[in-house]
Amino acid sequence: MADSGDRKVAIIGSGLIGRSYAMLFASSGYQVSLYDIEIEQIDKAKDDIKSQLLKLEEEDEQYQLIQGVTDLKSCVEDAFFVLECVPERLEIKQNVWKEAEPFITRDDVILSSSTSALLPSDISRNFLRKERFIISHPTNPPFYVPLVEVVPASWTDADVVTQTLKLLESIGLVPVLVRKEVKGFVLNRIQYAILAESWRLIRDGVMTAGDLDKVMSCGLGVRYAFMGPFETAYLNAEGMHSYSERYADMILGIQQDMGPPERMDGPVLDLIQIDMEATVGPVSEIQQRRQWRDRRLAALAKLKADLNKND
Amino acid sequence: MADSGDRKVAIIGSGLIGRSYAMLFASSGYQVSLYDIEIEQIDKAKDDIKSQLLKLEEEDEQYQLIQGVTDLKSCVEDAFFVLECVPERLEIKQNVWKEAEPFITRDDVILSSSTSALLPSDISRNFLRKERFIISHPTNPPFYVPLVEVVPASWTDADVVTQTLKLLESIGLVPVLVRKEVKGFVLNRIQYAILAESWRLIRDGVMTAGDLDKVMSCGLGVRYAFMGPFETAYLNAEGMHSYSERYADMILGIQQDMGPPERMDGPVLDLIQIDMEATVGPVSEIQQRRQWRDRRLAALAKLKADLNKND
């Protein structure tokens, strides 16, 4: 797309996700029009972007590529990619799109949303151009965690799927295709499968929450930084069939031993909160701990890039 | 324990796990007596240990602390910690212990097994000193993945629990306490919860196995290298209660949408195998890929240590 002079990306919503996408597109040389309702919001977003780009040692040039606007028409007209990043409520999203669509000028436009929780067919059902719509759900913070779940509706054009995957990859992200609309897509389904079993183990007094977190961060999780569950299995035997021969019965027995999920609330939640305060720190210091996390995510991203260069 | 002159560790079984434990104990200055049935096995283990210690730039001194023996009596007598690392079959383990126990001389000995799959009460039921028995299940490879699950039986003495945790921590491992005997302990239960949902997503055609692995390695997993599922939740909101208020209903809805587990076999397994061959490489090259993995685990272990130093 970049070759044919299609350089304008419209981003609707200047919150954390909208800003991150704006920086990623600008860093790849795209012109970004970043929309929000209030000029104060835009100013806040641009200040944040400026300081983040500085930290990343990006040139001022990238910053100049991002234009903040409060006029939806000027945001979306001529854009080849319109990405909506407004709050996670169906009504809000549908209203923004209803307002924006008449101003969209290109027939080959791609319309996208960063939603993590809503299904593409629910958002785009009443669009003028519903066949041009697709979800691009990023992982937070997108600069250090590159995965994006790309989710078409049943009516999405095939070229929208292939072009969106290509575009996101070209700006340094790792897009994966969710081929069917399922609640939570894939990332959150796996995350919530982990939480369901972790919750039961705390409830049953098998382990403290602090220790259970170590099982991940000092055990399982160091592998998962480099490989998924299937590659882990593949390498733990001589491929999938030998893995199955050795472990399938044992694994099924353990899986069948895991009861139904429970709503995360009540005394078990209190117990986990107390343990997190003791091991992670009080809620009042969460912001510092997020910085602690982000320093690690940034260092790991760099390490992975270096390792891949030296392979 | 080290202070009172208790320096002899007996390790029964010189396979991968036995060797790793031998190196870890020797690196902390313990005298290790490493037993196997055949002298050839011992020689093979010692050659491997030597080359590994060289790679880790450990001194020859450490190597000298490991003595290989084929005589079970001389292995276990005077040892304060006897660690059995023989193959994962209950009968084999029970027989080895039956043979070893009469030779054990110290009343305050700790008896341990590296098993990942057997329960401590099943192994130690008929021991002479069953109250001295506890499981120390490591993660592979223990030099780069430091987690150890410590699992007592209901009859295990309290001091065996506290001393085992302390001892393992003193040699650089991260021990966590499994307070009740559950199948698969904690690490494998979480691993198999992930596999159960991943399997269903492949079966239902939601995603390819290669892409699903990326959801972990380029998304969820980069966080998990540094924090577990509860800290992830804690930082994704303002603590556990705010996480629950925002997401508990949505999460439960998604968890209830995940069907029962299936045995890993048949056409879905074939599909995953084909995708792994394409993305990871053929089964014939698994050994190189394991080295690729271990280079990364070693680099991440170093990165984490450096980051913690600079905090």
Automatic annotation (TrEMBL), chains A, B:
Protein name according to UniProt: 3-hydroxyacyl-CoA dehydrogenase NAD binding domain-containing protein
**Keywords carried by this UniProt record:** Oxidoreductase
Q: Which InterPro entries match?
A: 3-OHacyl-CoA_DH_CS, 3-OHacyl-CoA_DH_NAD-bd, 3HC_DH_C, 6-PGluconate_DH-like_C_sf, 6PGD_dom2, NAD(P)-bd_dom_sf
What domain of life does the native source organism fall in? Eukaryota
Q: Give an example GO biological process.
A: fatty acid metabolic process
Give the family per the record: Belongs to the 3-hydroxyacyl-CoA dehydrogenase family.
| Domain 3-hydroxyacyl-CoA dehydrogenase C-terminal, residue spans | 184-238
Q: Mitochondrion: present as a keyword of the record?
A: no
Gene3D superfamilies, per this entry? N-(1-d-carboxylethyl)-l-norvaline Dehydrogenase, domain 2 (1.10.1040.10), NAD(P)-binding Rossmann-like Domain (3.40.50.720)
| One MF term in the entry's GO annotations | NAD+ binding
